[in-house]
C-alpha cells in the first residue's frame, strides 16, 4: 500500500496493529501510542512516508521543579521521555535511517548533535525576541536539506504568541508547543509530495494542523492521551467541519 491510502484502507492497515487511533479528515492518522512500538512497524512500512518533521523530548528535564517554564507561572506536566536522548537515538535509527527517509527536520537539533551526522542544512528559528528573556531566542532545527545554513524568522514571544493564538484560534497547552505558522514554513521547505509526513512525538498535534493547512498528509504519534484529546480539540477548532473517526480495538 503506497501513496494515496484511502480512509477505509487506512482503517484496515490499522486493524492489524490493535491500538487506538484517529483518522482525521481521511488524511491524517493520529495514533495514541509510542512511535517506537514495534507494533507499528508493519503499518509504517505499508504507508509511503516521504518526510519526518518532529520535535522529540530533548533529554534535558525541561521543566523546573515546580513544573513551570522560565519565568512563566503556567504549570505543565513533565514531558514524557525527557530524561535523556536515548529515545531520540532509537527513533533516528529505527524510523529515519532504517526506513530510508531522506527528508527530515528535527527540532531541538542542538540537543541531539552528538548523535547526528554532520550536516549542511541547519536552520535557526529566530523568535525575534530581545536579549534578556528567560527563554532561548533561537531554536535549532537539524535538517536533511542540502542548502546553506538558514534562518526562519517567526516572531514568537509575548504579544506574538497571542497573535499566533488569535490567528489560529487556540490557547497553547503544551510546554514545547510549536507554532502552527512556523511548522507550515518548515513543511513548505520539503519537496512537494503526495506522501505522508511522520511526526513521532506529536505533543499538541500542531504538525497535523500545519499539514492540513499545507495540503499534506501526516501520521502523528503521541503517548499522552490528554495531549491526543487536546490535539483533537485544537484541530477541530481550526477545521470544525472535518470528520474524525476513532478506531478502538
Ligand atoms: C517536545 S514534545 C513535542 C511538542 C510538539 N512539537 C508540539 O508542537 O506540541 C515531545 C512529545 O513527545 C511525546 N512522547 C514522548 N515519548 C514518546 C514516544 N515514545 N512516542 C510518542 N510520543 C512520545 C511527549 O509526551 C511529548 O508530548
Overview of the molecule:
With 249 residues, the chain is an alpha/beta fold. The protein has a single domain, classed as Vaccinia Virus protein VP39 (Rossmann fold, 3-Layer(aba) Sandwich). The chain contains eight helices and ten strands. A ten-stranded mixed β-sheet has the order 7-5-6-4-3-8-9-2-1-10, sandwiched between helices. α7 links the parallel β8 and β9 (217-222). The longest helix is centred in the C-terminal third of the chain and has 14 residues, at 225-238. The two termini are 21 Å apart. The structure holds S-adenosylmethionine. S-adenosylmethionine (SAM) is lined by residues 34-36, 55, 57, 79-81, 87, 174, 176-178, 200-201, 203-204, 206, 221-224, 227. It holds the Pfam family N6_N4_Mtase.
CATH architecture annotation name: 3-Layer(aba) Sandwich
**Mean pLDDT figure:** 89
Query: Any idea of the CATH topology?
Result: Rossmann fold
Biggest pleated sheet: 10 strands, mixed
What is the first-to-last residue Cα distance?
A: 21 Å
Named once each, the bound ligands are: S-adenosylmethionine
Spatial shape: globular
Uncertain segments of ≥5 residues (pLDDT<50)?
none
Which H/E pattern describes the elements? HEEHEHEHEEEHHEHEHE
Structural class: alpha/beta
CATH superfamily: Vaccinia Virus protein VP39
**What's the Cα radius of gyration?**
17 Å
Q: What's the number of helices?
A: 8
Sheet with most strands: strand arrangement: 7-5-6-4-3-8-9-2-1-10
CATH class: Alpha Beta
What percent strand? 15-25%
Number of domains: 1
Q: Number of DSSP strands?
A: 10
